[in-house]
Design a protein that fits this description.
This protein is mainly alpha-helical. About 70% of the residues lie in helices and about 0% in strands.
Length: about 450
């Protein structure tokens, strides 16, 4: 079946992107500058001290970069006909979200004397914000247009900044890995949006909602990228080197324990003892999600335990919880973000509460963690519902059901050119037949 070109997509997407990019350029010209704009002109042999702290985190910053653009993009390429969409649209949303987050966070946190001083740490904080939009988009992967996803990012980023302030500044939660502020927030934002965008026609599945060996292999490669660099994600915002060291080690232990548990549980729940790639692509990362909130606090044994429990819950979630929620509350979660980010995030938060209760110094931390968890779920669900309602407005481009999970509506895929060439060849043969008969 051929894909009909949509004039509204051609008009909306480039115009929307150019307007936003023009606005970002204007804002950066007017309000952004380096703290010491001429320090790079220093020709002395003495190394400048400005920015040294930022340069110390540059190796970890590069790791987060790889996670954001390569790891997440490849992980979302598991659908047979939507590999370009998984990788390329992830690339687009990440760049838009980072610039937008730098603007929002700049005015919210760093605006002084009518100027925002730009540092490497600003970009790092913006990348953490961008992760929330990318995770939330996973709930509606393949059944929303790039225009709708730009709207999602534009609305989610400011709400994330507000909720992040509540978690870290108001409740004073030490959530260095973003278990509550990033994973739980993005999960329930995406689920709220997905519930509003519910498609009854997808209850029995979609003919294009399938995978291949190659697409699953690419997705697993993305998972391995995320797995390798996750210790950097959980440790880059640590307050000191000792906390950073503990976070790196504990994150690795949680991921390693979770991976072994995933292999075991995946084989256990299958009647023939086979291992599901969907489980490996997700549950092997659940330990990194769960341990983030307490990565700099817990013991090595605690990290192994949290990783094991989180991956076990994630695997069981894919096997039993997702079909149950889809049937009972009509929740369509395309990438299973509830199993990877929501459930492990809650397990990790409960684990941090247990750690605090066992610590005699802090008597209020457990209640603050519970309050932060409740507020985050409430704020994110509310934001997701509002965003979903706005995304349903007819003024935004909506793909038709037959175009779900298909790259051809958005990209010039090689098959299009090949099919066009074959069609022209057949047309020429058809026209030559009467001439030969004459």
């Amino acid at each position: 079946m051929s894909i009909v070109f949509s004039a509204s997509l051609r008009c909306q997407l480039p115009v929307l992107l150019l307007i936003f990019q023009g606005a970002f350029i204007a804002i950066f010209i007017l309000f952004f500058s380096f703290e010491e704009p001429f320090s790079y002109l220093n020709t002395s042999n003495v190394t400048a001290t400005a920015g040294e702290d930022d340069l110390d985190i540059f190796p970890l910053f590069k790791d987060v970069h790889i996670m954001l653009f390569a790891g997440l993009g490849l992980m979302l390429s598991f659908l047979r006909l939507y590999g370009f969409g998984g990788i390329a649209i992830n690339f687009l949303i990440a760049n838009f979200s980072i610039q937008w987050a730098m603007v929002v966070q700049g005015f919210f946190y760093h605006f002084k004397h009518w100027m925002i001083h730009l540092r490497l740490n600003n970009i790092l904080e913006a990348e953490f914000a961008a992760v929330t939009a990318l995770i939330s988009a996973g709930a509606v992967l393949g059944r929303t247009s790039p225009v709708q996803l730009i709207l999602l990012s534009a609305l989610e980023i400011p709400l994330f900044v507000v909720n992040d302030w509540l978690v870290n500044k108001y409740f004073h939660i030490l959530d260095i890995g973003g278990t509550v502020a990033i994973h739980i927030f993005s999960c329930y934002f995406g689920l709220g949006m997905s519930q509003i965008l519910y498609q009854p026609s997808l209850q029995r599945g979609h003919k294009k909602e399938t995978t291949t060996s190659n697409s699953d292999l690419l997705s697993l490669l993305g998972t391995i990228f995320l797995w390798i660099f996750w210790p950097s994600f959980n440790s880059v915002l640590a307050k000191n080197r000792e906390a950073q060291h503990r976070a790196i080690v504990n994150t690795f232990l949680a991921l390693s324990s979770g991976t072994m548990t995933t292999f075991a549980m995946s084989s256990l729940v299958d009647k023939r003892g086979r291992i599901s790639l969907a489980h490996l692509q997700n549950a092997s990362l659940a330990g990194g999600v769960a341990v983030g909130i307490s990565a700099d606090l817990i013991s090595p044994g605690g990290a192994l335990s949290i990783g094991c429990i989180a991956s076990m819950a994630c695997t069981l979630g894919f096997q039993y919880l997702s079909p149950f929620l889809a049937k009972k509350i009509k929740l369509q979660d395309q990438c299973g973000i509830h199993n990877l980010h929501g459930v492990p995030g809650i397990i990790g938060t409960i684990g941090s509460i247990v750690v605090i209760l066992l610590e005699p110094i802090d008597t209020y931390g457990s209640s603050l963690h519970a309050a932060a968890l409740g507020v985050t779920i409430g704020v994110s669900l509310f934001g997701g519902y509002i965003t979903g309602l706005l995304m349903r407005l007819p003024c935004f481009f909506h793909p038709f059901r037959e175009d779900f999970f298909d790259d051809q509506l958005y990209f010039q895929v090689p098959e299009d050119i090949e099919n066009k060439w074959i069609s022209n060849e057949k047309l020429q043969e058809h026209l030559l037949v009467p001439l030969k008969q004459i």
